[in-house]
Structure prediction request, 93 residues.
Amino acid sequence: MPTNNQSLWSRPQLVWRCRRGMLELDVLLAQFLEQHLYALTHQQRLQFQALLSWSDDKLYQLLVKGQPFEGLNIDEKAMIELINPSLSQGYSL
Prediction:
């Protein structure tokens, strides 16, 4: 879980990190960033940054395929649902 004393990445850094090896992830993450970046709380931005360190395969399974992933904490689940709201029925918080 990210801590509050971590620094936030700049918008260009986030845009660069949203570029993935899969078109579906590129589109989904770029749209989310464009629509929600400035509305995210500090903690949500830290969580989003942490999520961007995950592998493309893990992100694809969670964000595109909607497959539940064991071991996610409540903040990670909330961020996944924020990025792709159509998945909110697939996870129980």
Remarks:
- The two ends are 16 Å apart (CA to CA).
- The chain is about 55% helix and 0% strand.
- Helices lie at 11-18, 23-36, 42-51, 56-64, 74-83.
- The first helix runs from residue 11 to 18.
